[in-house]
Amino acid sequence: MEYTYNLPPMDLMRSEKMTFVQLIIPVESAHRAVSYLGQLGLLQFRDLNDGKSPFQRTFVNQVKRCAEMSRKLRFFKDQIHKAGLVPSPNPASEPDVELEELEIQLAEHEHELIEMNSNSEKLRQTYNELLEFKMVLQKAGDFLVSSGNHAVAQETELSENVYSNDSYADSASLLEEEMQPGPSNQSGVRFISGIICKSKVLRFERTLFRATRGNMLFNQAPADDQIIDPASNEMVEKTVFVVFFSGEQARTKILKICESFGANCYPVPEDLTKRSQIIREVLSRSSDLEATLEAGLRHRDTALNTIGFYLSKWTNMVRREKAVYDVLNMLNFDVTKKCLVGEGWCPIFAKTRIQESLQRATFDCSSQVGIIFHVMDAVESPPTYFRTNHFTNAYQEIVDAYGVAKYQEANPAVYTIITFPFLFAVMFGDWGHGICLLLGALVLIVREKKLSSQKLDSFMEMLFGGRYLLLLMSLFSIYCGLIYNEFFSVPFHIFGHSAYKCRDATCSDAYSVGLVKYRDAYPFGVDPSWRGSRSELPFLNSLKMKMSILFGVVQMNLGIILSYFNARYFGNSLDIKYQFVPQMIFLNSLFGYLSLLIIIKWCTGSQADLYHVMIYMFLSPFEDLRDNKLFWGQSVLQVILLLSAVIAVPWMLFPKPFILKRLHTERFQGRTYGILGTSDMYNEEEPDSARHPHLDEFNFSEVFVHQMIHAIEFVLGAVSNTASYLRLWALSLAHSELSTVFYEKVLLLAWGYDNIVIRLIGLAVFAFATAFILLMMESLSAFLHALRLHWVEFQNKFYNGDGYKFKPFSFALLTDDDD
Amino acid sequence: MGFLVTTLIFIVVGIIASLCARICCNRGPSANLLHLTLIITATVCCWMMWAIVYLAQMKPLIVPILNETE
């Protein structure tokens, strides 16, 4: 026993020792000190300005500026994404930029981008209009040629006379003059041409008909290409229309209706030559505009590319600055207003490193005053910090999912690393499936570096995080599969000959009486003769149920022993004498005895009925055992064990509250003035349930009820938890049966036929069923049940799990959530 | 092979594994203790599994009765 006292502390067993520190930082070195601390990542700041709203804090302006900058950066990221570019970081590293400079640069870039965007918007709109005009010219031309030539002939003559001398003038003036209203109110038929969305054409026509009382002629033709509708930014189909009408009033009405329906009207000259001239002008202008637009796009893309070089660097910088200012907001100004005071938790092993960083910050700021860093006492319990690596991280997380360990209590993760994959494997045992899981785990581990830098979706991320868990689960599954002798439910004779053979050469009674055991037991695992026999299930069920009970009793004993180590570590001898000892006695005199009986029955081959033995141990302990006698002295032993169990119950229920009350009155005798006691007094006999701030209160009834609940939970839980371990039997039976069904009823059935197609189909169905049902669903199921066994049956023997996790201020832990 | 012989084999394998762990990843006394605990736990678990199945087959109460297959 002496040896166990001298062992060094185990790595993951208890959380790191923490200390509460106070920092006094002069204002000029505050920013640099906090950013160095952020790089180190080992100090958890306490928020001293808890009561203040975000707008009452000191550095609220800087936080606002950082938020504004991150908004601009998000805008750039959006624009880059919309333009379809991929931001690639610049290989050449530029010198670091100061925050103010960065702010100015970002403002400039944003301004530039917004300007470019609006310009290209305008250009695009003009381009659209030209396109529409072109379409109207092309289609409307057909209508005008076919309809009402003669009626308009006079007008064209007139217009020709007016405009003939200008026909070779520059195109702009021709276009402009065409926009003017046509020759003065001649009473002839006139027309309006334009373009409208295809979906609105019918209603448009009807409205026009009603408005002009039927005195109009409506011609339409669909446009050849789709056009971008500026309002919705999508490609829509448009229809070119021409409305023939007469009279000025009709014209105003039609124009108003066009406007309300969003139809764009473009004047089309009736003369063919003029039309073709205008078409040529429109085409040349639109190609000019196209070139301009493209140049504008290229310019914008180059600007976005240059921004893209620095985008990730800038985003990181802004994120860090915001975090630093958030932490600075947690600090308080002291009375002189020249220093900031901060408080926090840090692990003891990190103290020197923190002091080094603070000294470096003072030096780099060329500040005259050093930063003061000293240890303080704290009332509250420290946070829990476990230093994990890639391997142990997954296990610590699944333990933390149930509850974070109290400061410095025993960490169940140490044993969970082995027992969790082992119990999974007991329920999953099949070395064929285990090999599949092993391949999956190896793939994840080999591509570790590549996958850890990628961004994975949540399912793959969970799978990747648990890759070492998966590796151990698969290794233990292979081992248990070899023991159960199942390879996709097929047994093999790997470890020698079976122990059973036929009674005689003809094997005549193998089907009625069965085989006979002629050698020693099969050396490793379940004998392959059992598979497929009629008595397979009775044998395996008995084996697996007893195995579950044995594993359960061992794991629960481990839990109670861990509670002993906890009590010894915290110096709580009360817990050892009045909780650990009666618990061990109770559990082992009942279920430990059952385990002993199981082993004796196996070793001696007795035919005793263990249910009978256990039940009558309680009902009639003094009766003669007759057939159920397994060893000499069994009745006496049973009576002794029963008495011990009966004594253990009041032993764990009554003494502790009374002794606590006596200790409390002894300590506070004569202390009627209130509490002056320091924390030293409570180091020796600290009751684990009495950590309340008002130490003069001792509510006896509360403590007694608490102890009673604890005792009843243990006593009843002893039975229910032991029975709960039978799920190891249940799930392994289910796995084995499913596996057998898929093998015999799918694969063998399909293989029986001679047809290659049926064989392939059978193989495919077998592969799918194995992969989805056995590998995925059964894995999840066994994972869940093994987890439950750990969380409830193992941990409720010793684990408190009411601590809080250590969350240091660290740049490495900043995530994208802030954006 | 016998119960005791195989138990001895398990113990020897456990000792060899802990020696290998001590040689390959020697990272200070507290980490070594953790590795030793893990190896002992694994050895005990695996031995228990084997021992239970072996003991159950040493003196069985029933024998395999073959199924009348087609």
TrEMBL record, chain A:
Keywords for this protein: Coiled coil, Hydrogen ion transport, Ion transport, Membrane, Transmembrane, Transmembrane helix, Transport
Membrane topology: Multi-pass membrane protein
Family: Belongs to the V-ATPase 116 kDa subunit family.
GO biological process, one term: vacuolar acidification
A molecular function GO annotation: ATPase binding
PANTHER family noted in UniProt: V-TYPE PROTON ATPASE SUBUNIT A1 (PTHR11629:SF72), VACUOLAR PROTON ATPASES (PTHR11629)
Protein's organism: Olea europaea subsp. europaea
One Gene Ontology CC term in the entry: vacuolar proton-transporting V-type ATPase, V0 domain
Coiled-coil boundaries: 99-126
Name recorded for this polypeptide: V-type proton ATPase subunit a
InterPro entries (alphabetical): V-ATPase_116kDa_su (IPR002490), V-type_ATPase_116kDa_su_euka (IPR026028)
Transmembrane segments annotated in the record for this chain: 422-446, 467-484, 547-565, 585-602, 631-654, 756-777
Pfam family, any one: V_ATPase_I
Role noted for this protein: Essential component of the vacuolar proton pump (V-ATPase), a multimeric enzyme that catalyzes the translocation of protons across the membranes. Required for assembly and activity of the V-ATPase.
Superkingdom assignment: Eukaryota
Cell location: Membrane
TrEMBL record, chain B:
Main location: membrane
GO molecular function: proton-transporting ATPase activity, rotational mechanism
Gene Ontology CC terms: endomembrane system; proton-transporting V-type ATPase, V0 domain
InterPro entries listed in its UniProt record: ATPase_V0-cplx_e1/e2_su
Listed transmembrane segments: 31-56
Subcellular location: Endomembrane system
Keyword Ligase: no
Swiss-Prot/TrEMBL keywords: Hydrogen ion transport, Ion transport, Membrane, Transmembrane, Transmembrane helix, Transport
Family the entry assigns: Belongs to the V-ATPase e1/e2 subunit family.
Name of the protein described by the UniProt record: V-type proton ATPase subunit e1
The organism's taxonomic lineage, starting at the top: Eukaryota, Viridiplantae, Streptophyta, Embryophyta, Tracheophyta
